[in-house]
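Example record

The entry below shows one chain as it appears in the dataset: sequence first, then structure tokens.
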Amino acid sequence: MAPLSTRLLFQRGRPKSDRLGKIRSLDLSGLNLLSEDLDLNLLGRLKQLQELDLSDNQLETLPADLGLPHLHVLHCANNQLSDVTPLCQFPQLEELSLEGNPFLTVSDSLKITFLLPELRKFNGKDVSTTRSKAENLNRELTTRVATHWRKFMAALSPEEQAKAQANFVKSAVRNVRYGPVSLSEFTQWRVRMISEELVASGGTHAREADMPEGPHKATATQEPRVRMISEELVASGGTHAREADMPEGPHKATATQEPRARPVALRRPGDTPLSLSPQKRVCTSPLAPVEGSPVGSESSQLEPLHFLQCHSKNNSPSDLRTQLWACAFEPAWDEGQAGATSQTVATCGGEAVCVIDCQTGIVLHKYKVPGEEFFSVAWTTLTVVTQTGHKKRWNVLAAAGLRGLVRLLHVQAGFCCGLIRGHKKAIATLCFSPTHETHLFTASYDKRIILWDIGTPNQDYEFQASHLLTLDTTSTPLRLCPVAPCPDTYLLAGCEGGCCCWDVRLDQPQKRRVCEVEFVFSEGSEASGQRVDGLAFVNEDVVASKGSSLGTICLWSWSQTWQGRGSQPTVAVVVLARLQWSPTILAYFSLSTCPDKGLVLCGDEQGSVWIYDVRPLLAQRSPPQAAPQAPTQILKWPQPQALGQTVTKTMVNTVVANPTFTYLTALTDSNIVAIWRRGEP
């Protein structure tokens, strides 16, 4: 693109004039402009400019001094902006559009409310709700900074206090924490500003913020783009959740029920599209009954924290029938560093995928597809190189279900940036390779598992996936599990007909392969053909599987089993231990593991969460005991209360904990996302 010229500005400016100072509206969209193409001297002559359109360019930043004091409307959609702080140069701005900038986050939306006091509309939505969120966060941060100031100065002598004030800002930014990890950029930004103000005043005061209420209030019919559960919940720091419209519980499961059908069979015709309201229905309860000892050496107790109905049809408080099937914690932003963890979890069920902050219970993002029913979600972290050569890391969420399509969601930017078609029937589950960030396995009711390379997005942030392998199954695959010690070589799958293994090496010529080995869990004629609906590695060698025998979870050794395989197509697993679980005949309760803590987790038909610390068990050298080992702990269903009604029972379809076992998320058959937090020891 050639540099901007006076002639171009006259051509694209309105009203038509022979003087730049009289132009009030300027359209510079779609010119592939880079940041350095914005000529400050030329644009600074537009003294009366009120509306500027810079959409559909390649801008990575806005120059700090464009000299447009009367700008009221700015469109910068579909660029590559990653910083909103230069917007403070437009104090009169009333309307702003930043959609389609993949590197901007929720934190940037909150920053904007501070930087632009006159802003009324952001991305076409009324800004009042976002401003209110920022005010609540700022109020709590101000209190915490002031508390930190008192503690910081109390430990110093008067002489030391005068010298130490300069260090206070660094200390506050390092130690003052509040809100979800996804908002940490905003909270640290505000903590620094509040701290600097406090130091400048000599500690005499800390003003909350120069935040006007904004020129217009949001009306009841206006819906913010990013929803919060409630302002009460934000202000409480996630320490409580309001009781909400939770009617009485779902139908109870009984011992005479037939085994549950897979979700495809349970899809209800005539479901209406889901519309999200500003407040999610939340219910609270007293501490749940617990059987057994607290898990971990810290002897800390898991406490119920949030119970959310964020997948409701039509946002209806009476919806206790939408089934929730899968959840996955987002990779930590500082993954690879000591102590890295995540408190953001993606959940799916019905027509929606939600991304929830476990600390506060805030539903950060929601993506819905009318007529879809989502069964599985999985995260990966990609490295994207911009046109100027800068590398960016961002997390992508894959979601799939009834329609047999994989949707690749750029969660922070809030849009679907890829669609993969390859299966003829519903997708039951999917997972990313732990060693190749772009390799995705999808398993379908068409009895095929496909390995895709989703690639990296192009300059328009669109994916072009390529088909690498097809793995044929003899029954429906339910769970996928790359083999921990050799994920590039073998893939395990729990299927309706048993547990199977495939060779997935890409240097082999065959691009369509059949099951190489079937693993069985007992001897005799009935050893094969048993459903495996739970499958996960506990560590580099030990596999946990469920479904092959009633009321137990099996722990078996991959290395010992594979060593004794020979050339046989069917191999009995080398059992290390069996864990006692619910005697229910119902199926499709998925188990998960927390390898860093040596834990196995599984829900049941009564709403309980079974937790097993298997480290002591695996440390034993003796042969496995005949009797299944009891769980370390059972979290009973807390029976949340709302409007005088009690949700007495539910089925917990899946349970997942973050790597540090700080948060535990359980999804139910009754449209409730339950979140527990491990308390301080």
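Notes for this example: DSSP finds ten helices and 41 strands in the chain. Confidence is low (pLDDT under 50) at residues 206-259, 261-287, 335-339.
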